[in-house]
Records
---
Amino acid sequence: MRNRTVRHTRRRRIVVTAVVMAAGVGLAGTALAEVEQSDVAQQAHAEALAPGTPCSVSTRACVDLESQQAWLVRDGEVTRGPVPIASGGAGQETPVGHSFRVYRKNKDHVSGEFNGPDGNPAPMPWSVFFADGGVAFHGGDRERASAGCVKLDLPEAEAFFNDLAEGDKVQVVNASVEQAARGAAPATG
């Protein structure tokens, strides 16, 4: 009887897990497909652009995945940038969004998921975490795509670390999508 109960419980867990995963994939696909139609995106598109960027004036950090550039913004004005970045690679793309928030900073962070070329946990110096899944700005080799993070040269990573505070808004966009959504002329930088 006990074995039957254990098998039944395992089967139930598998079924529940499958349903949750299917629902999550469905919801994630919907969210991704409609990101530019969300209320948050609409509000961002109603704001003026920070000059020279594809992001709204209320952001503190702006990332354009198309040009592989980032900016720091304060009070609607660019304070640093554009600076070159490396974003996530195929299958591990950097998420797009208009209202990410800095939620943690760690000067000497190392990856808990990935090893560097030397086999040790990959260093992620000057990490500024802003999106689910541990997505962060951090220093690193821009010649290698990241696992969703935004890699910066070390001096730039340190500047982002020193300038951004917990709660600051981060926008990650594709400039051409922003331009189309706003019906505006392209940003120059």
---
Amino acid sequence: MFKTLFQNQPIISNSVFLQSVFLIALLVLGKADPMAIVFAYIFETVIIGLIHVVKLFYVVAYNDPEKGKSKIIDYCSIPFFLIHYGAFVGIQSIIIYTGFAINDDRFSTSLSFSNFIDILNLEGFNMVVFSIIVSHLFSFYFYFLKEKKYKNENLGAYMVKPYLRIFIQQFLAIIPFFFLIFMDSVSVLAAVLLIIMRTILDFYLAAIAKNPDKINKLAKRIISKNKPEELSDIEQSLKVFFEE
């Protein structure tokens, strides 16, 4: 079973699987509060955004700007990303947090700083967040820096790259909320379900990025019939959008 799972899988996919096993082990052994998993996944969107800013700097630095533009304009797009991404993540996170706070007496819906401290004090939260940070830094080095993925990347496509993943991820974080409605607290089962579905998501998106046929079909649905010459560019953008 394990041989089949790891066969022909890149090192990043293996790290995603191992991290999932680690998180489930924390839950089963009682070393992590199920809510720590939920809030850590919400907080992960911040980690993704910060690392992505560094990636954007690399993309701008190692690629020539479009004709008629200067690199200063490209660099200025990075603060724009921070503002837009921060607002997108912030609004989603507040909505999700408020939904949990309404049904969990340990948290207040006032959005005060003390709630943030309460989240930090959840059992296992620091370990879970640390494992997530390590996983992303691992991916950043081995997949982005070592493979020099920043070369010949389209800045426009790379700007929107994280949105699909974090949108689905934050949507998945809502799943334990339904358990909370019918139970006194988020159960270990709900947290494990969240981890499993998040892992499946990572593998599925990676599989799409590596499948030229699926990318081609998606590109043909997007492209205008009057502009077939754009097919190659759209395929490349979609690959960037789905891959790690």
